[in-house]
Amino acid sequence: MRAAAPYFRVKDGEPRNIVNISSTSGLHGNAGQANYALAKAGVTGLTKTIAKEWGPAFGVRANTVAFGHIATRLTAAKEEGAFITTPDGVKVALGIPQKQKAGREDGAEAFKDIPLGRPGTATEAAGAVLSIVSPLMSYVSGQTLSVTGGRNM
């Protein structure tokens, strides 16, 4: 954001938006994820600070979108074989080991704590980001939109 700051001065009348991506772990915590929850909570705090500082200075809106369970290769079973290769050529497996997932996502009980009964899709996640930058949300700033299918309400 610091590097982009010079471009946020409104000269052409076009609105400026910052959308930070976070997780509901930063809002509610998550057992076994202290470092992740801390980092995501920091994103929310940074967003609020930027909204308070850059709103008056530049007319910038800043918001966070905090996702719950979105079906991606990072939330899929590690055994499905998704991976990335680091710049130095190391292959890193993505996903959650099936042993950890056992009991959490099997059959009718899979997403019982999500009122919509399923994880979100990447398209739905992108739609949430698109909505927050929409002119229809032009008076929303410093907020966190939880995209969870109703989980944690």
Q: Regarding quaternary structure, how should these chains be classified?
A: single chain
Identify the CATH homologous superfamily of the largest domain.
NAD(P)-binding Rossmann-like Domain
CATH architecture of the largest domain: 3-Layer(aba) Sandwich
- Percent helix, as a range, is 25-40%
**Which fold name fills CATH's third level, the topology of the largest domain?**
Rossmann fold
Q: What is the H/E string?
A: EHHEEEHHE
C-alpha Rg (nearest Å): 18 Å
The description of the largest β-sheet is: 3 strands, parallel
| SS element count, helices | 4
How many strand units?
A: 5
Roughly what is the average pLDDT, rounded to an integer? Answer: 87
What gap, in angstroms, lies between the N and C termini?
30 Å
Strand content: 15-25%
**Which CATH class of the largest domain?**
Alpha Beta
Global outline: globular
Structural class: alpha/beta
Poorly predicted segments: none
